[in-house]
Design brief:
This protein has 260 residues and is of the alpha/beta class. 40% of the residues lie in helices and 18% in strands. The strands form two sheets. Strands 1-3-2-4-5-8-9 form a seven-stranded mixed sheet, with helices on both faces. It has a two-stranded antiparallel ribbon with strand order 6-7. Strand 6 and strand 7 form a beta hairpin. Helix 4 packs antiparallel against helix 5. The relative contact order is 0.15.
Length: 260
């Protein structure tokens, strides 16, 4: 039997479920601000993708295999009417899931990511810092954060990574995510193999200050998701659901209601 992803199911059982898929280095709590709202009227399913959170670790990490993980869980839980919200890496996983079980997917809500190949920016330095913390086998969180500060200048990003640090039973600070697998498969995470055309109602919600969804991506989006639209949120970056959750929730609610 295939391994199941770690998950959290909330809200009353209904005929449909909202599935929430986090981004790279995250976990099922990253979209908690959305889940807490939607579980009042829907059942919500938050998952830890492979090599993240409390889900299993594997040397293999690509969108095709991650999508199969998610489908295995959805079939296990017996859901047929599914709305998927995916942020960043989770958005790419969501689009791959849709190709596998298109008839079961009611809507796709993609937060600040395009179905395209991306290229390394300053990621190498960040990855060096994350790997170094594992290699040094530090014994407390403050030492780990001091190392991280040498590689990641933005405090908000360091705070994000801080949530994934924990002390194991040997007294060593570790990452919840599988940093070795992520590092070894980083090109696959940045990459993308185009999907066959699907017509599921899809909305791409872009942070206006982010460059993950650009005008040059529109053609690629339409070639893969014919029934799609793009909505930009002003004064927000890549973490738009944290920066402006009220507006994001309103847009998602309206989109789901229109397509239910």
């Amino acid at each position: 039997m295939s391994k199941l992803l770690n998950y959290k199911l909330e809200g009353k059982r209904t005929s449909s479920v909202i599935l929430l898929l986090h981004g790279l280095f995250g976990n099922l709590d990253n979209l908690g601000i959305l889940s807490r709202n939607f579980k009042q009227h829907y059942q919500t399913l938050s998952v830890d993708l492979r090599n993240h959170g409390l889900s299993f670790h594997s040397n293999i990490h690509n969108y095709e295999i991650m999508a199969k993980d998610v489908v295995t869980l959805l079939m296990h839980l017996d859901f047929d009417h599914i709305h998927i919200i995916g942020h960043s890496m989770g958005g790419k996983v969501a689009m791959k899931v849709a190709t596998l079980i298109e008839k079961k997917i009611s809507t796709l809500i993609i937060l600040d990511i395009s179905p395209v190949q991306y290229f390394r920016k300053q990621d190498d330095n960040m990855l060096k810092g994350l790997l170094l913390i594992k290699q040094q086998k530090l014994d407390n969180r403050s030492k780990a954060l001091k190392v991280l500060a040498e590689y990641i200048k933005e405090q908000s990003i360091r705070q994000f990574f801080n949530k994934s640090l924990y002390l194991n039973n040997k007294g060593i600070i570790c990452w919840r995510f599988n940093i070795d697998a992520i590092n070894n498969n980083y090109e696959s995470i940045l990459g993308w193999k185009s999907i066959s055309l699907i017509s599921i109602p899809t909305i791409f919600i872009k942070g206006a200050n982010s460059d993950y969804i650009l005008p040059k991506h529109k053609e690629n989006i339409q070639k893969q998701l014919s029934n799609s639209e793009i909505h930009s949120i002003s004064n927000t970056g890549h973490w738009l659901h944290v920066e402006n959750p009220i507006q994001i929730i309103k847009i998602i609610q309206k989109f789901i209601k229109k397509n239910s």
